[in-house]
Amino acid sequence: MSLPEIEPVSRESTAGIIARQLRDAIMTGALPPGTQLGETDLASRFEVSRGPLREAMQHLVSEGLLRSERHRGLFVIDLEPGDVYDIYSARSAIERAAMLRALRGDRERVATELEQAVAAMAAAADDDDPTALSWADLRFHEALIAASGSKRLVRMARTLLIETRMCLTALQGTYQQVEERVTEHTRIIEALRAGDEETALSLLEAHMEDAVQRLAPGTSLREGEAPAVP
C-alpha cells in the first residue's frame, strides 16, 4: 500500500504545552471564571512569542473554555445556570450509558477501580484538602466512563470533564460536610456491585441533580427544560 509523504511525529509543540498549562489553570480555578487573558503578560510569563500563545488560546476557544469578546479580548468562560444545566445534562447521558455497560460487564472489577477513587476522596477529606478531593471525585467519573470500554463515550466526556472540574471547584463551598460526597459515590458503587440497575441509575441521576441544584439553585435536570444560556 502506498502512502503520501508523512511527516515524522514530533514532540508536543510549544502551543500544546501552553494550552495544557492554561487548561489546567482553568480547571483548578487558578484562572477563575471571567478572568481576562492578556497576551503581553502571558507571553512574558511563558517566555514565548505571541504566535504559539495565540495558537494555544485558540485551542481553548474551540474547546469552549475561553470566550472571545470583540475589541476586548479573551476571557475564561463563566458558568451560568444554563451552562451548568447543559454540562450535567450531557454528563448524565454519557454516564448513564457508561453505567449500563458497566452493569453488564465485569462489575466487580469496575467497582474495585471506583473504590480506589473513593478511597482517595476519603483521604483528601480527612486531610481537609478540597483540591485533592475534587481531583479524586473527577477520577471516579473518568474511571466509570473508561470502564464502559467505549472510545466514543470517553472522547465525548473529555471536554465535559474539564468543565466539570471547574464546577467541582465551585461545589467545594456548598457541602457542610465533605463526607457527603464520599457517601454519594460509595452508594453508587454498592448498587453497581450488586447489579441493581434501577438503584445505580437512580443514584447517578440524583448525584447529578444534587450538583446542579447546588451550583444553580432553582435549576433542575428533572424539569426537562434548560434555562437560557447567554
UniProtKB/TrEMBL annotation:
Keywords: DNA-binding, Transcription, Transcription regulation. The keyword DNA-binding applies. SUPFAM superfamilies: GntR ligand-binding domain-like (SSF48008), Winged helix' DNA-binding domain (SSF46785). Pfam families: FCD, GntR. Residues 12-79 form the HTH gntR-type domain. GO terms for molecular function: DNA binding; DNA-binding transcription factor activity. InterPro entries: GntR_C (IPR011711), TF_FadR/GntR_C (IPR008920), Tscrpt_reg_HTH_GntR (IPR000524), WH-like_DNA-bd_sf (IPR036388), WH_DNA-bd_sf (IPR036390). It comes from the Bacteria. PANTHER family: TRANSCRIPTIONAL REGULATOR, GNTR FAMILY (PTHR43537), UXU OPERON TRANSCRIPTIONAL REGULATOR (PTHR43537:SF5). This is GntR family transcriptional regulator. It comes from Amycolatopsis azurea DSM 43854. The lineage of its organism: Bacteria, Bacillati, Actinomycetota, Actinomycetes, Pseudonocardiales.
